[in-house]
Design a protein that fits this description.
InterPro entries: DegV_domain_contain, DhaL_dom, DhaL_dom_sf, FakA-like_C, FakA-like_M, YloV-like. It is a single chain. The protein has 22 helices and 18 strands. α17 links the parallel β9 and β10. It is globular and about 75 Å long.
Length: 556
């Protein structure tokens, strides 16, 4: 049984944990109990810890303290969503506990887990039971008890995981929403998957296939004969996403024109490797999903012929080298040129245009199912030439990631306004006064947030029973302040019911933003429904271009 670990082994444990959660992220995503398609806990936690795994692969650490610090720093900058931020906090406290340690045994691990729990609870304004916080707290408590009996790190970590599973099973009884849906907490599940991955590395178990495994870029020509080359061109390319569209149809298409297909994907881009005879067709189809950034096409038949003749095969430059060359070195934060700047998060070119027109300096593409990391937000803050930068997260799952930027900012102050919807962000920005004091602006913007009501129309991703509603996959859903207002198979009927709700009936101004899946004619019908139902309100219709939500409706 392993008694202690050093920095190198701790790094391997994190890498293994990253592979573990990425291999199970979809199962974790599916633990979300609300039928809106925002199942992203597994994705967020996987992307968050993947940043740490990448850094630990790059930077060998001689001590546990060094490895834990690299891990915590990368997690902080890579944190996505509330679950990712809480995960980064757990490991930030962990790192503080072992910062001076060359190696670590079970007693050190127990103390580090306890420090992590304390850091997470301290940062969460209203900690709730039946969450990752509960699971981590009880797991840490059991680790301390186990360390008193046997200080071997393997034994302590195993005890923590066992108690964590007991705590996880009980989350269904602690949270009313979980109880109604009959599922355990997704964040708690993800945390235990990470701990189990760390323990599996200690025990020498093979690493699961990581969903983010790098794409193979070159065929093994030495093992081929010309007859074995079914398709001629080894094709690799990267596409920067501009639409929020699943890649299943694209994957099916590529399989129909080639083989050896591998697609690696994150929130912002995807990378494709495929063997095909028509690489141009593959690249053309890819542009339906985003902007083509880099591509490499190599003729495997001529390469084989060169190798068979003892020649060095002709090849394009290595794609990773091209990526590095095209990726500019990080620039220094922009020097302040004005008192206030604004960074806003939204998804959809129409919504981005609204924020730009109102004076936002930086726009981050993100929102429901697409949570930007702390590092993504920090880059926009750094580029904003202002003394004070107001950040509008415009989604409850992004607020914590944005708040992590406050201590990271250099030569400027960051103020995060707790906007949970895009209409709240727009209302806050409308009242910002370049001549007012910071305190007055914060007060005015916070007050404006409270005056706007947000409704949304989306769809159910799967069958569910929620708050007495029997929801079927494909139902239209109306949400009021993120609470389920009603469902219907008829979109027009649901829009009419929403328009006649009290909040719309009492509003003076209503703005309807229609999404990327709504054509202009359908949007005009929605406008007519609201004009008929709300004759006393001034109503505007704008193309928001947002994914997921057919309509975002602001009422003031």
């Amino acid at each position: 049984m392993r008694e202690r670990i050093d920095g190198a082994l701790f790094a391997k444990m994190i890498v293994h944990a990253s592979a573990a959660i990425n291999s199970q992220k979809q199962q974790i995503n599916e633990l979300n109990v609300f039928p809106v398609p925002d199942g992203d806990t597994g994705t967020n936690m996987g992307l968050t810890i993947s940043t740490a795994a990448t850094e630990l692969r790059k930077k060998p650490a001689a001590t546990v303290g060094e490895a834990a610090n690299i891990n915590a720093s990368a997690l902080l900058r890579g944190a996505r969503g509330n679950s990712g931020v809480i995960l980064s906090l757990l490991f930030r406290g962990f790192a503080k506990a072992v910062k001076d340690k060359e190696s670590m045994d079970g007693r050190d691990l127990a103390i580090a887990l306890d420090f992590g729990v304390a850091a997470a609870y301290k940062a969460v304004m209203k900690p709730a039971e039946g969450t990752i916080l509960t699971v981590s707290r009880l797991a840490a408590a059991q680790a301390a008890a186990a360390a008193r009996e046997n200080p071997a790190i393997e034994s302590v970590l195993e005890a923590a995981i066992q108690e964590g599973h007991v705590a996880l099973a009980d989350t269904v009884n602690q949270n009313p929403v979980l109880k109604k849906a009959g599922v355990v907490d997704a964040g708690g599940k993800g945390f235990l998957v990470i701990l189990q991955g760390m323990l599996d590395e200690l025990r020498g178990f093979p690493m699961p296939e990581d969903a983010d495994t790098p794409v193979q870029e070159k065929a093994d020509f030495a093992s081929l004969t010309d007859e074995e080359i079914t398709f001629t061109f080894d094709t690799v390319f990267i596409v920067r996403k501009t639409v929020n569209r699943p890649l299943e149809a694209f994957r099916t298409y590529l399989n129909s024109i080639g083989d050896s297909l591998v697609i690696g994907e994150d929130d912002e881009a995807f990378k494709v490797h495929v063997h095909t005879d028509i690489p141009g067709a593959a690249l053309t189809e890819a542009q339906k999903y985003g902007t083509l950034e880099l591509a490499k096409i190599e003729n495997m038949r001529t390469q084989y012929e060169d190798m068979a003749a003892g020649k060095k095969p002709q090849s394009t430059d290595d794609l990773d080298m091209e990526e590095s060359a095209c990726d500019p070195a990080p620039s220094a934060p922009a020097a302040p040129e004005k008192k206030y700047g604004v960074v806003a998060v939204c998804a959809g070119e129409g919504l981005a245009g609204v924020f730009r027109d109102l004076g936002a300096d930086g726009i981050i593409s993100g929102g429901q199912t697409m949570n930007p990391s702390t590092d993504d937000i920090m880059r926009e803050i750094d580029k904003t030439p202002a003394e004070v930068v107001f950040v509008l997260p415009n989604n409850g799952n992004i607020i914590m990631a944005a708040q992590q930027c406050i201590p990271l900012a250099q030569n400027k102050k960051v103020v995060v306004l707790p906007t949970k919807t895009v209409p709240q962000g727009i209302s806050a920005l409308l009242v910002m006064d370049p001549e007012a004091s910071e305190e007055d602006n914060v007060a005015a913007m916070t007050e404006a947030i409270g005056h706007v009501a947000t409704s949304e129309i989306t769809y159910a991703a799967r069958d569910s029973d929620f708050d007495g509603f029997a929801i079927k996959q494909g139902d239209y859903l109306a949400l009021a302040e993120h609470q389920l207002f009603g469902t219907d198979r008829d979109l027009s009927a649901l829009l009419d019911r929403l328009a006649r709700a009290d909040v719309q009936q009492s509003a003076e101004f209503i703005t309807i933003f229609y999404g990327e899946d709504v054509d202009e004619a359908s949007a005009q019908k929605a406008l007519e429904i609201f004009q008929t139902a709300c004759p006393n309100a001034e109503i505007n219709l704008l193309s928001g271009g947002q994914p997921v939500y057919y309509y975002l409706i602001s009422a003031e």
